[in-house]
Amino acid sequence: MAGISRTEAYSVFLLVCLFLSFSEARDHLVGGKSDAWRIPSSESDTLNHWAQKSRFLIGDSLVWEYDATKDSVLQVTKRDYVTCNTSTPIETYTGGSTKVKLEHSGPYYFISGAEGHCKKGQKLIVVVMSEKHRRFIRVSPAPSPAEIEGPAIAPAPTSAAGRLGGGFFMLALGVLLVVM
Ligand SMILES: *[C@@H]1O[C@H](CO)[C@@H](O)[C@H](O)[C@H]1NC(C)=O
Asked: What does pTM read for this prediction?
């Protein structure tokens, strides 16, 4: 067969797997569309509904697009989120195009800065997953009792990147060996 060989094809596959294993931080457009930062039209249209369908990881960013003359984004405490208290936000974002980087795991609370909008449901909780929940395919077998009790065993890579890269690398290698 002319063109690329099987080996080359699977080498490319391997590289793609490696690339995916170090996937980039993502930007999440809040609500999934540019006019979504507004009072929800129904219970099923809330921003929290949208947020529950997404995975937020440390390093990702939230992006809001809204009419700067009518609205703003306030990052608030849980208490101010619940009570829709706009008087002392943690951060105030204005300007119509707001980007917030998610620096830590756990919940982030946002409400609209427009008068009365939060009470009508224009609010958002985003829960950022911790490092250990990052996308990760486990391929290494569970250690045997001998390994656990044995003396000096070389430690497995412990950094998240090492685990991720290692996982995908082993997966790709496994596929390569099975197919060739
Ligand atoms: C809003 O929060 C501020 C600061 O915590 C507080 O002084 C104020 O009473 C709160 N307003 C309402 C309506 O709860």
From this structure: 0.66
